[in-house]
Design a protein that fits this description.
2 copies of one chain form a homodimer. The first copy, chain A, is an alpha/beta fold and about 180 residues long. The first copy, chain A, has helices spanning about 10-30, 40-55, 65-70, 90-95, 115-120, 130-145; strands at about 5-10, 35-40, 60-65, 75-85, 100-105, 120-125, 160, 170. Chain A has a single domain (about 5-170), classed as Alpha/beta knot. In chain A, strand 1, helix 1 and strand 2 form a beta-alpha-beta unit. In chain A, helix 1 packs parallel to helix 2 (about 40-55) and helix 1 packs parallel to helix 6. At the A-B interface, helix 1, strand 4, helix 5 and helix 6 of A face helix 1, strand 4, helix 5 and helix 6 of B.
Chain lengths: ~180, ~180
Amino acid sequence: MVITVLRLGHRPIRDKRVTTHLFLAARAFGADRGIYSGVKDRKLEETLAGVCREWGGSFRVEYAESWKKVVEEWSGKVIHLTMYGVPLRDTIRAIRSEPADKIIMVGGEKVPTEAYSLADWNVSITSQPHSEVSALALFLHEYFEGQELAREFDGARFRVVPQERGKKVLDITSP
Amino acid sequence: MVITVLRLGHRPIRDKRVTTHLFLAARAFGADRGIYSGVKDRKLEETLAGVCREWGGSFRVEYAESWKKVVEEWSGKVIHLTMYGVPLRDTIRAIRSEPADKIIMVGGEKVPTEAYSLADWNVSITSQPHSEVSALALFLHEYFEGQELAREFDGARFRVVPQERGKKVLDITSP
């Protein structure tokens, strides 16, 4: 079962860091790949590819000219994260028990009305304004029931050894 | 018991949206106030004040010239969120049972070594690179055991009525 995070309407200058953080969170919390629409941003793709080279896993980011085409041609289920949707706690069990591949759609500043109608579930992570980054992380955390926190990433070059104070990072490719 | 989120080394141009998202997540997930060091950013403070006017609650953001002074003069406990720290699952119970006020410290790109030594707990939300926004949201979600998702905000002008499709927002100050 594959989880794809679809970021709508990326604008390289304004959204650069937020979209980077969004995909880093997607990877760290167990999603398998990212797709973004809006303006193509090679730098964003390279940043994520660089993180995967160093920290492992197979998370990849692709550009799609039309998010709508991605969703319409999708054979699995679509979840749209929005503060206007149905609370996470009322939807997560049904979503979790659905075996199909899933797209988790997150908007930017302005989300087209169609996003709401094309989604199988519109899900709110609180009905307060916050961030697509926190919304996605919370969603994945509840979806994976916390198991994602202990996830290991294959092929990593570096591995953190948790410390009470300071940093310890092993280069696990060195002999 | 008061929870303060302390953002280290804010740079208005580069960090504008990420720090805004960080404090919006702090508010939405139950923190009481925000402090940031780095460069003073009136726009950031106004954005947060505007959200509180519209969506309620008493979350406030203040600037501090020295984050170190804030931490050194602090009588409560200090939690530092960092990918190099001790896993959330191994620390959250002890932190939750501590009755003192708490600062949750989150860095930007480069965190001074002192942040690690001044903290009572260095806590990792996965040992992978992601975002201070997702790290903070996950921490608060586990700290409040999910109760924060149903939190209501006093004095709100607007309230969302959750919908399966589309948006419904009530202006609760109108007669």
